[in-house]
Amino acid sequence: KCEKDDNCANGGTCNTETGKCNCLTGTNGVNCKNIIGCDQLNCQQKVQRAYLMLQEKCQLVNAMPIISIFKKICHKKCEKDDNCANGGTCNTETGKCNCPTGTNGVNCKNIEGCDQLNCQTKSATCVFDVAGKMPT
């Protein structure tokens, strides 16, 4: 039973009247946790302890940028904090990294705000300042 949108996975929303999640197309099940088509994606046997997730993907549709979250990706689960970048911590129960504010993505490797830094040289690299929780 859901009480708020956060109780629904994969972008689902909570209908507080019924206590059930309204799942996005491509997901179903209790709290929208199942991603339809995962079994056909065929995660590599070499990637043990893998999980599948929906990842945001920006597309141009009629010259307008549209975010589509139906790209199915196979990822190796984290087993310890060292598997998560930029100060992220591993939730060994789910195998997913808990990313600190200012980072996101698989293993917390995406640093938010790097594009606003306007680095002028091709050799510049944007890194995440864990203590300051900001890109540098």
UniProtKB/TrEMBL annotation:
Residues 1-33, 75-109 form the EGF-like domain. Signal peptide: none annotated. The keyword Ubl conjugation does not apply. SMART domains: EGF. Disulfide bonds join 23-32, 99-108. It comes from the Eukaryota. Keywords: Disulfide bond, EGF-like domain. This is EGF-like domain-containing protein. It comes from Larinioides sclopetarius.
